Amino acid sequence: MTFRLNHLAIVVEDIPQALAFWRDALGLSLSKMERVADEEVEIAFLPLQDGKIELIAPINTTSGVAKYLAKRGAGLHHICLEVPDLAAAMQRLRDRGVELINDAPKVNAEGIRYCFVHPKSAFGVLVELYESPSAAQV
Amino acid sequence: MTFRLNHLAIVVEDIPQALAFWRDALGLSLSKMERVADEEVEIAFLPLQDGKIELIAPINTTSGVAKYLAKRGAGLHHICLEVPDLAAAMQRLRDRGVELINDAPKVNAEGIRYCFVHPKSAFGVLVELYESPSAAQV
Known about the structure:
The first copy, chain A, has helices at residues 15-25, 64-72, 86-95, and strands at residues 4-11, 32-36, 41-47, 52-58, 75-83, 106-107, 113-117, 126-131. Chain A has one domain (4-131): 2,3-Dihydroxybiphenyl 1,2-Dioxygenase, domain 1 (Roll), CATH 3.10.180. Chain A is globular and about 45 Å long. By secondary structure, the first copy, chain A, is α+β, with helices and mostly antiparallel strands. The model of chain A has no long low-confidence stretch (mean pLDDT 93). In chain A, 22% of the residues lie in helices and 36% in strands. Chain A has an 8-stranded mixed β-sheet with strand order 2-3-4-1-5-8-7-6. Chain A has 3 helices and 8 strands. At the A-B interface, strand 1, helix 1, strand 5 and helix 3 of A face strand 1, helix 1, strand 5 and helix 3 of B.
């Protein structure tokens, strides 16, 4: 199967500072900024030819992302791949002994069903899966 | 500008173990394996709809990747974006105070000109740039 990369998430302390590199120096476009109250973060979206880079900064010192930053520092945080059938993908992973962070699919503000694979099952990488019925997988 | 993601590199200790997750459990395809003697690594290529994931494992205990693994553990290592004119991109970055790891473009085994941006200038992310004259950037 060929998966589509939905996004590549990078945790930063400060979005404007990070944009000075990603947008102003490197030259990527900024398509939108979004404040996600539930996750206590602000996100800057930088589209790639396919998929996008998301710069994620905490909006307080107590969120999960703030704690991650304090412990690990800024850097690559997770990758999100699209799957056509999330429940089937989760079952397939579980059948092969992969640990998922959430047992049942979650739904984000855009109505997208998603889950996270535990980094210890993915060799240090935090992998998010988005359900996208139109995901082209050949 | 819209950049193309050429690859997303993940450092692992052992390619067959990592493939048990990425290929067998998650379902990505393995398109090829390659041993890169110069960098003392073995690489597994897993194509995405656009771009690819590269699993990189050291073939000895003295290579740069082996040292990285010993210090940081397995996980996301770098992202590689395509630019149409590498020299111009490097000059633009330098003009804005961005530190590059190599001062002049390097050339890999496939003849691709590339450079690395220092992670301290990219907020913790190791960014590689590949020159691809046909890179669609609008």
